[in-house]
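can u pls check wat happens w/ 3,4-dihydroxyphenylalanine
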Amino acid sequence: MNKTPGQILDEAKVLLAKAGAEQDFEAARIKYLGKNGEVTALLKSMGGMTAEERKEFGKAANLVKREITGLINGGKAALSRTLVAAKLMKERIDVTEPGEGFPLGTLHPITQTIDEISRIFMGLGYSITEGPEVETVFNNFDALNAAQNHPSRDLTDTFYITKDTLLRTQTSPVQVRTLKSNEPPIKVISPGRCFRADTPDATHSPMFHQVEGLLVDEGVTMADLKGTLDAFAKRMFGDGAVTKFRPHFFPFTEPSAEMDMSCFVCGGGGCRVCKGSGWIEILGCGMVHPNVLKVGGLDTERYTGFAFGMGVERIAMLKHGIDDIRLFYENDVRFIGQFA
Ligand code: DAH
């Protein structure tokens, strides 16, 4: 006994009510509406009917076909709505949540210190110039009036590249380059890396940084040097800084001095940082030696000048209470991150 259209529809309704996935609907479509489907068979079976029968039966069969088609399409649409809704729920973002934030890098404390020194001297009208790290022996020593037997020329103290070139041991050769290629008034500072054959320890590193300074003009005196460097110390370490100048020797300056500053930790009373003396050595300086001015072709009767040089690591260590120079070069973010 063949199923009636009504029976097929009832069964289809039961089956589709249980459909929960795409395949279920596809299976139902094939079962009822496919080439060998039950509804298709109904329609095919009308071939042997009378016109009267066919009218009635055709109407019923087509109604069943429409209903089942509707159920399948409706079910599929509902399913896809459910899936989309679930997906949206899963991917929901709370736009009011604070962002995750990511770590920002920071300038290295040496760079920060050079920047700070540079800003102070730029405020005093200096320009910044740079020289090469690989220098000539002439610029690093001879032109700076260093005697042939000066100990720093020794192979055990200086990294030579060739007989005539080396890794500069100081930024002072930039003085020579500047004097050769500029006319007074000259007013420059020059930060950069220097190299000496030192074994690393808490206060020595074979690579370190200096900032050189040079001012040459008519009528420049030691008073200009003292005023300039005293102003620098006060900007760098605070208005309470008191400076004093001790006689010293450098081949390229005459007279030469070292500048000390009242200890910014104890104010001069004596403490661990100043090793009890109340004073801290900050830099070397002096009036540019006429022999150096002559290398630049200057008339030493007309022009005078002063120069100075300071160790960047030393200043950074003093300012931040750092007790080992090697910390600067180990790239440990726990150290560097403290200068953000
Ligand atoms: N070049 C010296 C050094 O490395 C530092 C220095 C001293 C630089 C006196 C100067 C100066 O320009 O006038 O120890």
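DSSP finds eleven helices and nine strands in the chain.
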